[in-house]
Amino acid sequence: MTRPEQDTAGRPRAPVIQRLLGDPRVAQARLGRRIGRLPYFTRVESATGPITRMEGRDILNFGSNNYLGLANDARVIAAAQEATARWGAGVTGSRLLNGNLALHEELEDALRRFYGRTGAMVFSTGYGANLGLMSTLLGKNDRAWVDEEMHASVLDGVWLARANMKRFGHNDPEHLLAQATEDKSSGLCVVEGVYSMRGDRAPLRRFLEVCRATGLALVVDEAHGLGTVGERGLGTVEEEGVVQDADFITITFSKSLGSCGGAIIGDKDQIEALRVLTRPFLFTAANTPASVAAALEALRILQADPDLVRQLKERVRSLREALVARGLRPIPSDGPIVSVEVGADFDTLQAWRLLWNRGIYANPVIHPAVPAGHGLLRLSVMRTHEEQMVRTVADACADVFSDLQLSHEGRGKVAS
User: Fold this and answer.
1) Which position among 104, 151, 224, 385 bears the catalytic label?
2) Are 66 and 383 in contact, with CB atoms under 8 Å apart?
3) Do 342 and 351 touch, CB atoms closer than 8 A?
4) Aminotransferase class I/classII large domain: which residues (predicted)?
5) Which of 12, 71, 152, 271 is the most buried (most CB within 10 A)?
6) Are the C-beta atoms of residues 229 and 200 closer than 8 Å to each other?
7) For residue 131, what are the contacts with CB-CB under 8 A and spacing of at least 6?
8) Strands (DSSP E) along 28-173, which ranges?
């Protein structure tokens, strides 16, 4: 007989639990759920495509990272199914002990060849790849020079290493140079090829020059650049000609490759050292066979048909032109993320809700993901979006800005 559900509300709670429940963000989330204004943890009820079933409705989806549409590709799905049938649902252990499948090594070999490097190392998540790289490379006396808009996985890795984190201005290699010239400590610089909130790209060639001049290792996170930037889709490292020069490149499989997992790409000797030293790699279960096979098949499709990247770029260009034609000013970029600045957090959440009411899903980005007062509407473009969908979302964004009396230049409310 099933026991009735019950919580522990009647018993005294330890101080650490009281602190957990008293966090202001918890109260905000509870309020958002009560009033139907929580834009996160939306229940998805179908495969993620241009039209996605969410919360009982068919929604025009401009909030997904399925950039190339490969998460829904029949070949990728078949590869995942075949791998599950052959290898099982999971490996039930770490790569170190019993989970190192030939399939993992095949994907690593394909990734290193794709980037023209000699080594690659596959992780269960992209987060784990950054966490593992930072926490292994850095020591407590090292410096980690990190862009002020860097992803949490890098920040958490630096904290885990107990290294000294130094932030430089967003996409500002001269700020990095000024700081690193004064501080001669050993360390590294981490940038993203395509930044996940604004969608803008890092000037990698200049960052490389600064790193060489100051003795820093250069790490480039191409989570959003893989499959979206460069003629072959290697990312901003390809566009800027630094594929062979970056000390490490990190990627995720959960965006353009339509799966789940991540990898570090670099020189063979460095990768082999990481393989025996990286705790987030050694002490976690290996990727499921389905996720590895899906990523491998998606990578093969991308290699065989780089025109997929061009098709995505055309859709991105169409959306940007449509927004500009309606008086909006998206943040300059040619990547798959098209962000429009709204302003205050409340206005950003209101804009998200108005789009949702019109059957459109986008991502609201508020503080602390962006500086206070600089909230964004973040639109993610998929290759599989149709032109009419692009026009529909552009029309809706223009109407929302008008309804909320927002400045089309991203300066908050229009002055009365």
Assistant:
1) 224
2) no
3) yes
4) 58-395
5) 71
6) no
7) 153, 156, 157, 160, 280
8) 51-54, 57-61, 119-123, 143-147, 164-168
Q: Which positions of the chain have pLDDT values less than 50?
A: 415-416
Tell me, what's the pLDDT at 1?
59
Active site residue 224: yes
Residue 30 one-letter amino acid: R
- Residue where the block lists tokens 């098209």: 338
Q: How high is the pLDDT of residue 410?
A: 61
**Per-residue pLDDT at 35:** 61
- Token digits for 371? 């500086």
Which residue has tokens 């949702």?
A: 356
Cβ 302 vs Cβ 68: under 8 Å: yes
Annotated active-site residue in 196, 291, 318, 339: 196
Closest CA to 411 of 350, 352, 329: 329
Judged on CB neighbours under 10 Å (0-12, 13-18, 19+), 1 is exposed
**What pLDDT is recorded for position 8?**
67
DSSP state of 193: S
Is-cis flag, bond preceding 336, omega within 30? no
Q: List the one residue out of 249, 225, 253 whose CA is nearest residue 239.
A: 225
